[in-house]
Design goal:
The chain is α+β, with helices and mostly antiparallel strands. The chain is built from 5 helices and 10 strands, in the order βββαβαβαβαβββαβ. The chain has one domain: Glutaredoxin (3-Layer(aba) Sandwich), CATH 3.40.30.10. It is about 25% helix and about 20% strand. Strands 6-5-4-8-9 form a 5-stranded mixed sheet. A 3-stranded antiparallel sheet has the order 1-10-7, covered by helices on one side. A two-stranded antiparallel sheet has the order 2-3. α3 links the parallel β5 and β6. The longest helix has 18 residues. It is globular, with a radius of gyration of 15 Å. This is Peroxiredoxin.
């Protein structure tokens, strides 16, 4: 397990379009996932201990953000042949077990992860209503540890600000996400 951190936010970068299959049996395009006031796009997977540690908070924050016109979508881009625990059927089971009320999509070709510049799981991208990048940081400061009641909800608070103003926190106020590297398929 290689631990990586995300790069700084590339403010204003437009969200690349995609069409991917969801665990609910339908195809999802970026426009289908878009929220009226913002969109959280996250790269996650089933087996990563960093994702497992924050999964309940991801589900909570995604649900809470809906009330502010912010939708969420999760994309799984790992090589499922090398990591079968991240396979489509196991994605379906995780989404049901964890109570996902947002799309969970499979990026089998890994093209979407490359378009976004995703590097790890979890990797969070926060877009404003115009689908311009305003946040590239972590969920919160707890990482793989138990969250205390006074731990700020960094992604949530950033997305509330973006929903209200269209502008994310200053770069120095965005802390990179940390997690397992995306498991890229070996080529050639």
């Amino acid at each position: 397990m290689a631990r990586l951190e995300t790069p700084d936010c590339d403010f204003g970068r437009p969200a690349p379009d995609f069409t991917l299959p969801g665990v609910d049996g339908r195809e999802w395009a970026l426009e289908d996932c878009r929220g009226e006031n913002g969109t959280v796009l996250m790269f996650i997977c089933n087996h990563c201990p960093y994702v497992q540690a924050v999964l309940d908070r991801i589900v909570r924050d995604a649900r809470d953000l809906q009330a502010h016109g912010v939708n969420s979508v999760a994309i799984m881009s790992n090589d499922t042949e090398a990591y079968p625990e991240d396979g489509f059927d196991k994605m379906k089971a995780l989404a049901e077990e964890a109570g996902f009320d947002f799309p969970y999509l499979l990026d089998e070709s890994q093209d979407v992860a490359r378009l976004y510049g995703a590097v790890c799981t979890p990797d969070f991208f926060g877009f404003n209503a115009d689908l311009k990048l305003q946040y590239r940081g972590r969920l919160d400061a707890s990482g793989r540890h138990r969250r205390s009641d006074d731990t700020p909800r960094e992604l949530y608070e950033a997305m509330i600000r973006i929903a209200r103003t269209g502008i994310g926190p200053e770069p120095e106020d965005q802390t990179p996400s940390m997690g397992c590297s995306i498991k890229w398929r070996e080529t050639g």
